[in-house]
Write a structure and sequence with these properties.
alpha/beta, Rossmann fold, 2 domains, 6-stranded mixed beta sheet, 4-stranded antiparallel beta sheet, 39% helix
């Protein structure tokens, strides 16, 4: 599904991402963890085309998407959320999902509008499904800016899903959530996997990461220091040292 080879991003003398290799299989939840500043969000931004790589390449389903602008990356089948919520605060919940729609049957904007106004469009049905998925049916006409923090997190995930992605890049989706909300997020991620959607999860909530992922890679100072199953990662001394700053022996 996703292949990253020798990916690097240097900011002057700082190697934010340094010669990174990753391989993520279809319908897999893959965790990317590491201390603050280890290069996790930079990796997501490189995949999405928000910033350009110093070296290396990114392939999605065998297609080289390296260097494509963000809108073409979305069109290729990648959706994302952000570490800091970026909703359209002045639009309603329903409108945020409508804006995020990628209507596959419409060939152009006017075709999309005609399809939407028909009242029978794929887009309309998809938005309704996303409202159900995110538990926001009763908040459909609320302004996004008036939702609680947890509800805004749910809406951002639903808006990323509105683009009909094959691959979801989630940048700390549990940040600021309480334990009940994290449990609900766990359920939603598992449901997305059951639908065949591949997920790259960047997260600091280790209970979520260890419980929901199939494999995990660990970054430190821009380099991958470990990769394996959750059990492998928990037992890895290099990972323990990266997080604790010292040997655990």
């Amino acid at each position: 599904m996703l292949e990253i080879r020798n990916l690097s991003k240097h900011f002057g003398g700082v190697k934010a991402v340094d010669d990174l290799d990753l391989s993520i299989e279809a319908a897999q939840i893959f965790g990317l963890i590491g201390p603050n500043g280890s290069g996790k969000s930079t990796t997501i931004n490189l995949i999405c085309g928000v910033i350009s790589a110093t070296a290396g390449d990114v392939h999605l389903d065998g297609r080289d998407i390296s260097g494509l602008p963000p809108h073409q990356v979305v069109a290729a089948g990648i959706g994302r959320t952000f570490q800091n919520i970026r909703l359209f605060q002045g639009l309603t919940v329903w409108q945020n999902l409508w804006v995020g729609q990628k209507e596959r049957s419409a060939k152009n904007r006017s075709g999309f509008i005609r399809s939407w106004l028909s009242g029978q469009s794929y887009a309309y049905k998809s938005v309704e499904n996303l409202l159900e998925f995110s538990g926001l049916v009763d908040k459909r006409n609320f302004l996004a800016g008036n939702l609680s923090f947890g509800e805004q997190r749910r809406l951002e995930l639903a808006r990323a899903m509105a683009t009909s992605p094959k691959l979801l890049l989630l940048d700390e989706p549990a940040a600021g959530m309480n334990s009940e909300e994290i449990s609900q997020l766990d359920d939603r991620l598992r449901a997305l996997k059951e639908k065949g959607i591949t997920i790259l999860l960047v997260e600091h909530v280790m209970e979520l990461v260890m419980g929901v992922t199939d494999r995990i890679a660990v970054l430190n100072f821009g380099q991958k220091i470990a990769e394996g199953t959750p059990a492998d990662i928990q037992a890895n001394q290099s990972v323990q040292e990266a997080y604790l700053g010292q040997s655990t022996e």
